[in-house]
Each structure stands twice: as structure tokens, then as C-alpha cells.
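pinning this so it doesn't scroll away 📌
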Amino acid sequence: MLLHGLQLVLALFTLCGIAFYVLALRSTYAFRLRTAPMAGSSPALSILKPLKGAESTTYQALRSHCVQKYGNYQIIFGVNDATDAAIPVVRRLIEEFPDLDIALVICTEVRGTNRKVSNLIHLLRQAKYEHILVNDGDITVLPGYLSAVIANFTGPEIGMVTCLYRGHSSSSLSSRLEALGISTDFAPGVLTAHYLDDGLRFGLGSTMAMTRAALKKIGGFEAVVDYLADDYQLGERISAVGFKVALASEIVETSIPPYSFRQFWEHQLRWARTMRVSRPTGYRGVGLSFGLAWAILLAILAPQHWWTWTLFTAALGLRMAVAWTVGSAMLRDSQVSRDLWLLPLRDLIALAVWIWSYAGDTVTWRGERFRLEQGRMRPMSSSH
């Protein structure tokens, strides 16, 4: 009786996942059908780039921001430490582009527990312009990136513009799994949220373009200086005070390190627990989106039933359709077709991460352990 009940639960979860895949395809179709705003005026823009360390891809990623086909903009790089490995890279760019307004700020004063946001507080003081753009240090963009993003500020109601992204993996299996998840799971989830809410209510760290008016209304970067998911929090707060968060059609790229499996697991778990405490109700529903993983478990538990294999075939086919439609066709991620065979493994791991995210509130970030309290980070050594 118990076994039969478990089979029915897994079948129901699989059906929910199938329904999510259909909705994700519909959401992607609706997003691609919309008319992208035409590039109009090009207001002066300040790019804030908080950095920590340097990888082999850092120079090219930062340089892509220096060759923008855009009018008047400045780039302000910031590090916490005067010995940071990113400093020589920035100085190389300053020498290479003497006519571009580039500055380097050493942010020795640390505010709060999120050092990236602490840097942003300092960098904003050096920003000259009304429009502010923040993205992560490993983001590579095309020459028309700034124009494509700014075109989405179609009126005073737009407080933030953000972008989808794809991951460029390293050679390790864990790195490939993470890149596959970004293009075939994370991006479809963002598009579905965009479709259901008629816009977004959060931001993505790949791009957060904001007006000073919107940023000031939420209390500046200081409002999120203790939050791990600063991108999510900034977008949510800007949305909460009456502005809209627009999703641009521009796609950017992030570099994924050659993770070991442990590093991959910790990174996935950190993101999962952050989302769980940030939006608990919505995060519970994420479990119902793992249609293929539930179908695999059902096939293991009840291989004797014809309907088990019917559900498995439907889940696998639609999961592949989502991966190809979003990852390959929309995000133009050439790695998706190469790694499509890894989808079952990736989805089973994602389901395990989702389940394990409820087993605690601690995360590892940049080698330090923190406890999450309503989205805020508290160092494990803290008495709070």
C-alpha cells in the first residue's frame, strides 16, 4: 500500500514537471515574440565593477566592456585589497585605453558582510552619471551590449534592466554540469517568472542597470549590504517601491571555473539555500519543476507499469525540447548539444540539492562559512 502510494506521488510530481516544461516553452515563445525596444538616446552611464582575484579569462571579460559602441560612459573597478590579483589587469586596461574614463578604487573600508556590495557603496561615490550598471567581474559582453541594455529604459517607470546569461564551462564535469543547468534550467525558470508576472521582480547579477532614482528610493546599496543574493534583493526592492524590472533580449556570458564536485555542490547549495530563505513559497514550488528527475525515480520504483514509461518518455522529450529551445536556440549556447546526454544526471543532482537545502541554513562563500537569517549573512564565528 505504501509502495503504491509512493508511485502515485512520483507520478503526480512527474506530471507537474511536465506541465512546467510546457509552461517554460510557452514563456520562451512569448518572450521571443515581443518587440525589442529600438536603441534611442544614449544617456551617459557609469559601470561599476567590483572585483576579487583574477582568472585566465578576466582580462578578456573586462576588456569587452572597454570596446563598447556607446557614447559617454565610465568604468570604475573596485577591489578590497591593494594586493588583489585583479589590479594588474585593470592597470593594463587603463594603459590600453587612455581615452576611456577608467578608474581603480581600493575599497579598504568594509561595510557589512557582503564585500561585493561593500565595494559598490564605495564605487557609487565615484560614479558621475544618472544611469548605473553593475555586473560581475567574469561577465563577457558584445560591443552592442550597453546600447541594447539602455534601450529598455523606455520610461520613468523602468527602475532596473537585467539580462539572461549563458555559462562558458571549463573542462571538468562539474563545470559542464553547472553551465548546462544555467542554460537549460535557470534561464527557463527566469523566463517563466517573467511570463507569469508580466515582468520580473528580481535582478540577475549578470546585469543590473539602474537609475539613481530607483536606487535611492530603496536606500542605496546599503540596504542589501548583508545579503548574499544582492542581485535578487536589489531587483525585488526596486519592484516593491513601484518601479518595473525589465528583461533585455541581450545575452551575456559568464566563465565557470573548473570546479571539483565538492565546489560545485557547495556553489549549488549556496544558491539554493539563498533562494529558499529569500522566497520560501516560490522555492517550495521549484521541487515540482524537476519532471525528468521524478520520472527517473518513478521508472526505478515501478518499471512494470506501461504508464511509467509513458510519463518518462513525455518528461524526457519535453525536457530536451526546453533545453534546445532555451539553451541552444535562444541563449546560443553551443555547449548544450554537446552535453545534452548529461541532463538526467544534472537534474538528479539538482533535485538532491533542492532536498538538502532544507537540511540547514549554512553556506560557504569565498572560503568562509555563514549562516543565513532571512537572507542576511551572519559569519559562523558571530555571536548573533
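📌 and the second one:
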Amino acid sequence: MTMARRGLIAVPDAAAAALILWIWAYPLAWRPGLVGVVVLAMLMEFVVIQAGPFLGRIVYGDRMRLTPRERRRSALALGAVYVTFAGLAAGSFGRWFPFFLFAWLFGAKVYAALLGRRPDATGREREMSYWVLSNVLYLAVVFATMFVPVPMLGVTEEGSFYGLRGRYEWANYPHEALAAGFVYFAAMALIRFLDLRMGVELSAGE
């Protein structure tokens, strides 16, 4: 895969990292609620990550001996799950923006999968490898930012100031969520650009 194509694949993650860094440094530059949006985005991202294997069935269905009907069913089932999740998130916030947030996060995964698609097992192995890496990286940065001190930058207030409800970790210390988000998306952008992978073998039946 060419460097230019790898760069295009990395764009969504790089853009997310840059935006989170800006909000982390200047949370009041636009409106305080943006901090809460990042926290919600990080919660949604973990759920969206789990779509990796199902997304692979949809994108590489022809190579996995799936009929068009089976691919459509997979797409509808996956869409139903995430529309429901986004709806619950929208209801808890009392606004529609979680739907747009979900569309961005899920759309970024579809964009990367389609742009990196190859008509052989290499493409599927790459996507499965990215899925494993994203899970490991997400959990690593979340736990690391909870136990290792990270700078507050501009996020110096508790979550309630930024519109967050509850007393969970990120509501009490929202700067941890922004630090985790920045590191996670920046690292994923680098992984995709450098095409770093883990050894993931697919079964012969696929």
C-alpha cells in the first residue's frame, strides 16, 4: 500500500486526535459542553471498536463466501445495534448530537476498512490486526490515564462544569478522558499510517 493511501486512511484518527488536543487545551474556546462530547465519544468508541469483526464480514463478505443476502443481514443487524445505542445516549443527554457523533466514529471505521480493502486475505488480516490493536490500545490508555498523573491543560474543573452527570471517574476528572482520547486516536493514526500489525491468522474456512 502506498504512503499516500496509508495517509488517507489515517486522516480520521489524526483529525480526532487534533480536535481532542484543542479541546483539552482550550475547553472554553467554543462552549464548555465540548468536553462532555469528548467523554461520550470515548465511551462510544469502545462500543464501536467491537464492530470490527462484523464490519469485516460486511466489507469482505465476498471473500468469506457470504451471499449478498447474508451481508445485508449483517449490515442491518449491526446498524440496529448501534442506532439503539446512539438513541440511548441521545436520550440521556436530551439532545441529538450523539447520533452525529456515532455516525462520525462508525463512518471512520467503514472509511478505513473500505480504503484499505484488498481482494485477498491480506486485507482481512490487516483489519483484524487493527481491531486487536485498537482494543489493547484503548484499554491501555484508559487505565494508564487513571493511574498515571496527566496534565489538566485547560480542563481544570469537575465534570459538572462541562455538563457531565454522575460520579464516575471521567465525570470527576474529565481531563483523563481527553488525555486518553488524544493518545488513543494519535496512536491509531500512527499505526494505520505506518501499517503496523500484529500476527493474526484467519481460519481456512474464511
